[in-house]
Design goal:
The structure holds two protein chains of two kinds. Chain A is mainly α. Chain A has 14 helices and no strands. Chain B has helices spanning 42-50, 87-92, 96-99, 107-119, 135-149, 165-180, 192-198, 215-218, 221-228, and strands at residues 4-13, 16-26, 31-35, 57-61, 70-73, 153-157, 184-188, 201-205, 209-214. The chains are: A mainly alpha, B alpha/beta.
């Protein structure tokens, strides 16, 4: 028994950076689950991806200004992320270009700019840090930041839950009763950017969106209601974080890809064996209920 | 009581009229069917009445009625039926004006909700996800939601297209009840038998007014022939209409 305990728990009891990373990932998991679920329900899955790339120049500028300073990178990321989200939304409303296309255009510009900035001044090691995150970077301030963002996310979601849900299920109805659809959409975009930024210390800008989308996509196969599917997503994200961190600890792999790959395994499992709409549940041959 | 007056109303998209110079009154407590061929501007007119489409010309006078007091049932296809939400949660949205964005449910509201579900024959369906419902059952959910809205004006866009006869009969009972309660009812319908059976008033459209009045006077062969001759296509080079005298 002692041996199992050593394998599964001692990395976290012995090393403070492992504990920090685990708590940060748990906080991230809880905040990202409902946001990711809404991204899927609003058919904006790929937009989360686009936004995560768009955040890069902000993080890069912060990095250039003050090294691997968490706050500089975070503030830069938030500013650039929101700018891209707003500009893309504005272009889609004012011109004939659709929202997905205008997002794609702007994130590509933003991403190229970010890579250019980093390559101009930093080394490729820096680029790797910003893109993939580094587990050692999760210090106390980082932990507080992630936990704060999760808190803000959960409270905002609770506050605007009702109109947000109505807006994606029946936008016409929200309009007809005079709800604030556009305002809700904007608050939601802010939450997406915040959660992406929260993810990038531990996971890196490239992988942060993984925490948002993969658990949410898996959660959909296990529950049929928004809250229960979000809960499933949060649990999947937490288990993936724990397993991913252990994996990266023993194999000396970068933490970001390890965590995301672990949730990828959960995703594949959910696609095949999930309770609702999976390959397995759709092809249960020879059985039906009486009523 | 609220009546809705259309004054020389023109509605359309990108300057092309879908409805041209329509004038008339939906009296308070009246029950009017809007009929006409596809593309005759029926749904467009409903969008104008509910305030989601601003007029290109003329005006709509709703008196003291605000557009968010109008209960509006759009065509089924506009709603995401796979959304993970329960029947109860959808129906309760009808109480938006009482509970708003944050408010909770009080005992009296739960009772109203139960009654609404009972009325449309969905008692016991509360916790079902809407993705499990048939088209008819889903339309019952929409009617339950409108029951809770308690709006003085009810606007329905093809409520019974692809709905079976039993459901249609049940839901017509709800509409009759609204009519008895003196609410103003405006519905787009395709089935003339239903119109003749239930609707005292009819508005026959073919991008312009063909006839508006008592149903038996409007739904006659001569009018229907005229409505079929309507031109459906946009004329890209149409000159500016000067009838408004502006």
């Amino acid at each position: 028994m002692m041996h199992l305990y050593d394998i599964f728990f001692s990395p976290f009891t012995e090393f403070i950076f492992m504990r920090h990373a685990l708590v940060a990932c748990f906080a991230l998991a809880i905040g990202c689950a409902p946001v990711g679920m809404l991204l899927i329900l609003r058919r904006m899955s790929l937009m989360g991806d686009a936004l995560s790339h768009a955040v890069l120049p902000g993080a890069a500028l912060g990095y250039l200004a003050s090294g691997l300073s968490l706050y500089a990178m975070t503030i830069g990321g938030i500013i650039v992320g929101l700018t891209v989200a707003l500009l893309a939304g504005a272009v889609a409303r004012v011109t004939a270009l659709r929202e997905d296309a205008s997002f794609a255009a702007l994130y590509l510009i933003s991403l190229a700019l970010g890579v250019l900035i980093i390559s101009m001044r930093g080394s490729s090691v820096d680029l790797i840090h910003v893109l993939f995150g580094t587990i050692l970077a999760v210090d106390n301030p980082a932990l507080i930041l992630v936990a704060s963002i999760t808190t803000v996310t959960l409270f905002s979601m609770a506050l605007i839950y009702r109109p947000l849900i109505v807006e994606c299920f029946d936008p016409g109805y929200l309009r007809s009763i005079g709800g604030y659809g556009a305002a809700m959409h904007f608050i939601f975009l802010v939450l997406v950017v915040l959660n992406l930024v929260a993810g990038f210390t531990a996971l890196g800008t490239l992988m942060a969106v993984g925490m948002l989308m993969l658990p949410a996509a898996s959660g959909n196969f296990w529950a049929k209601q928004f809250w229960s599917a979000s809960l499933a997503a949060a649990i999947i994200a937490m288990v993936s974080s724990y397993a991913g961190l252990l994996f990266s600890f023993y194999m000396n792999f970068p933490s970001g890809p390890s965590i995301i790959l672990t949730s990828g395994i959960f995703y594949v499992f959910s696609v095949v064996f999930g309770k609702h709409g999976s390959l397995f549940s759709r092809h249960k041959a020879g059985r039906h209920l009486t009523g | 009581m609220h009546q809705i007056t259309l004054n020389n109303l023109t509605l359309g998209y990108e300057q092309h009229p879908a409805i041209h110079h329509l004038t008339g009154v939906f009296k308070a407590g009246s029950m009017t069917a809007i009929v006409g061929p596809n593309g005759s501007g029926k749904s467009t007119l409903l969008k104008g009445i509910t305030g989601s489409l601003p007029p290109l010309g003329g005006s709509i006078d709703r008196g003291s009625l605000k557009t968010n007091q109008i209960a509006y049932l759009p065509q089924l296809m506009e709603i995401d039926r796979n959304f993970p939400i329960s029947v109860l949660d959808v129906v309760i949205l009808g109480l938006w004006r009482s509970i708003g964005m944050f408010g909770g449910m009080k005992k009296a509201l739960w009772k109203k909700t139960d009654e609404a579900l009972q009325t449309v024959g969905l008692a016991g369906f509360e916790s079902r996800p809407i993705s499990d419902l048939s088209g008819g059952q889903f339309q019952r959910v929409m009617f339950a939601r409108m029951l809770l809205q308690e709006s003085p004006v009810v606007v329905l866009d093809e409520p019974f297209t692809s709905i079976d006869s039993q459901t249609t009969l049940d839901l017509f009972e709800v509409i009759k009840r609204w009519h008895a309660e003196n609410r103003t009812i405006i519905a787009v319908l395709h089935d003339f038998n239903q119109v003749r059976a239930y609707f005292p008033q009819t508005l026959l459209l073919a991008r312009e007014l063909i006839g508006w009045g008592e149903t038996e006077r409007i739904l006659v062969d001569e009018n229907l022939q005229r409505s079929r001759r309507m031109s459906e296509a946009w004329d890209e080079s149409a000159p500016i209409c000067l009838e408004d005298g502006e």
